[in-house]
Amino acid sequence: MLDIRFNKNIILNKTFELIYLFNITIITICIFKVILLEENLLTPSALGTLMTSNKFALVAALVIVICGIMMMVMGNTHANRVLYQEDFGNDYSMSGSSSLRCSDSSLYLDTSGPSYTGGGEWNKNVSLPPAKISWQWAGEDLGGFQFWLKLTFSNHKSIYYVADGSMNPKSDGEHYRDEEGRMRFSPSIMISGVRLGVVQRDVREDYAKYCGSFDDIEIIRITVGMSDEDPERRNRLSISNIMIYR
What we know:
Oligomer: single chain
Radius of gyration: 26 Å
CATH architecture of the largest domain: Sandwich
């Protein structure tokens, strides 16, 4: 699920880590070279003196400490940053027309021509703490369409991120029974006008702004809705690289 091939953020992080390690290595070599020149220890016969050099010992200890701290920071970043990466491979449910498909780590809707309409929903059950979320979505020949990403929480609340130009989803919330068996209704939050392209949102901030305070809630479901409802437009839609991270 955390396939690095489809995670641009992980690739960037790893690139920066490698560049940082390379710079540390070059700086360390330069420091040692300066010390060797100052102590006149560039000859094999001076190896014993090298090992007893106070400057050598000080720099060696400093480099070890810096590398240890750096490895701890990078290890924590790698372990904690990415919580979820969706590659649209398996363990999901999908409803609607056959025009909604998963391929090449993307979910897309293509009704094959302007005169055809249809759509559906993709669902994935998860168990994740509210964190930051990013994804990439795109559309071609748009008009009269629905395109949104929905997060459902463990307390029956939900947030829709609706693409710019898209109609709002037809569902306005969730009906459920409370612990005493009474019917309740929890309205959904609609965040409309989200631009196509790469999207980054802080779920905790959005939840606090629109739903109030949160305690031990979790994200329990991710849903993507795509629908072409205009017979004069092709409405080719796609979404990929859904990632939840700290």
